[in-house]
Backbone:
């Protein structure tokens, strides 16, 4: 993947994504006890910043230097004394996930709308699972292929859209169990119908 086009998008004045966390991140992660988390392809850092504000030691990893710089700026302005729990790093999702500052692994590995074709997606998921601690959570949220005909918005290329069954299949052979796998409706402002998102929770198996 080439970060140039994304650097251009993230260099604009306006946010590319919303300032708050994804609705499913908030719903699923909200009840969890804080630990160490990484948001793979985290963009401007919205999810990781939200996590850090709630006591997590959160890393936002993205291959766009412009996105990482914006994430650092946003975190500094929003987190105050909690800014030390946040970091943003330049990292490609197709390479091994950066480890926490103090080594080890993550209690939560998040993939939120990493929309890439199946083969590289499997590579990214494998790296994310490798970065998770035994018993840790790997949360996948993405635009579903069914969204093309039944939902609204999102990418229009079916090659980068993944229904729950496809995400489960990508986890075959990895040391994970499936906690839940759902097709969820997500309200979209101004649209006459909701978007359809895939939401899958994996649990990293014990060694």
Residues:
């Amino acid at each position: 993947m080439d970060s140039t086009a994304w650097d251009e998008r993230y260099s604009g004045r306006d946010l590319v994504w919303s300032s708050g966390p994804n609705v499913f991140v908030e719903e699923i992660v909200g009840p969890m006890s804080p630990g160490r988390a990484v948001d793979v392809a985290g963009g401007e850092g919205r999810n990781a910043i939200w996590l850090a504000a709630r006591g997590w030691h959160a890393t936002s990893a993205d291959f766009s230097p412009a996105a990482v710089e914006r994430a650092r700026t946003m975190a500094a302005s929003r987190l105050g004394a909690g800014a030390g729990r946040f970091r943003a790093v330049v990292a490609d999702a197709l390479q091994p996930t950066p480890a926490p500052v103090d080594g080890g692994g993550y209690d939560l590995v998040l993939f939120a709308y990493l929309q890439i074709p199946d083969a590289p997606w499997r590579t990214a998921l494998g790296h994310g699972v490798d970065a998770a601690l035994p018993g840790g959570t790997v949360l996948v949220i993405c635009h579903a292929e069914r969204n093309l005909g039944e939902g609204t918005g999102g990418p229009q290329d079916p090659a980068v859209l993944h229904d729950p069954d496809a995400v489960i299949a990508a986890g075959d052979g990895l040391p994970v169990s499936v906690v839940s796998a759902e097709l969820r409706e997500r309200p979209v402002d101004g649209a006459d119908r909701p978007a359809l998102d895939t939401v899958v929770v994996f649990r990293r198996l014990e060694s």
Remarks:
- The chain has a mean pLDDT of 92.
